[in-house]
Design a protein that fits this description.
It is a single chain. The protein is mainly α and 216 residues long. Helices cover 68% and strands 5% of the residues. It has a two-stranded antiparallel ribbon. A two-stranded antiparallel ribbon has the order 3-4. The protein is globular and about 55 Å long. The relative contact order is 0.17.
Length: 216
């Protein structure tokens, strides 16, 4: 049975991979052309992504078609790893090793940053033990019980950022830079809560042993 942390990492990994793949698709569809500079728009002429400024990204590849294909391949590799192998001891290294190139070939800015956060979240052996020793048992139990709600809220916030806001902007229902920034801040805040509550959930269920570190 998967731990709460594994489920959280897999769910957010799927969101990250989907966001990276979307960047790559937009770049590939621009065709066999050179980018206008280091910073590009993945969807420069898309009304759907107008509210997200055309989905900015950066690429060191001098060809948008190649950049897009590489971005999609890296995103798929991240998706497979996060869904199948996130519990392995070398998971943090692999996630980081895929996230950094994703940034450099056109995967946007959010997906690689999210990838590095998830990579760090896989390495909580002794840090998690110290964290749990400082948290009162009652507070830990409340946090553990809140994990399903916090995890679902986190997923919904990131889906809103990825698909909901562009759709609202496309239909001219809502289009505001302040709203985009607010949703982004909320999404990262809920991510932190979902991760912390998953740690607490695993301690309460015995998936993490506070006397011996982490047990997947």
């Amino acid at each position: 049975m998967r731990s709460a942390r594994q489920i959280t990492l897999a769910g957010m990994g799927a969101i990250m991979a989907m966001a990276g793949f979307e960047h790559g698709l937009g770049e590939a569809l621009q065709g066999n052309v050179a980018p206008g500079g280091l910073v590009i728009e993945s969807w420069p002429h898309s009304e759907f992504y107008r509210s997200l400024a055309g989905e900015p990204a950066m690429t060191l590849i001098p060809n948008l078609l190649v950049s897009g294909v590489l971005t999609m391949l890296l995103s798929l590799a991240l998706l497979v790893w996060m869904l199948r192998f996130v519990g392995r001891p070398d998971s943090a290294l692999i996630i980081a090793a895929l996230s950094i190139p994703l940034l450099l070939v056109g995967g946007g800015f959010g997906p690689p940053v999210l990838g590095l956060i998830l990579a760090a979240a896989t390495k909580v052996n002794s840090p998690s033990t110290r964290w749990h020793s400082k948290l009162p048992r009652g507070a830990r139990q409340v946090l553990a019980a809140s994990w399903p709600i916090l995890f679902a809220s986190c997923i919904m916030a990131w889906l809103l950022m990825l698909l909901g806001l562009p759709a609202l902007g496309y239909f001219s229902v809502l289009e505001s830079d302040a709203v985009v920034l607010g949703v982004l801040v909320l999404a990262f805040f809920l991510l932190a809560l979902a991760l912390f509550s998953s740690f607490a959930r695993d301690v309460e269920s015995g998936a993490i042993r506070t006397d011996a570190g982490l047990a997947w």
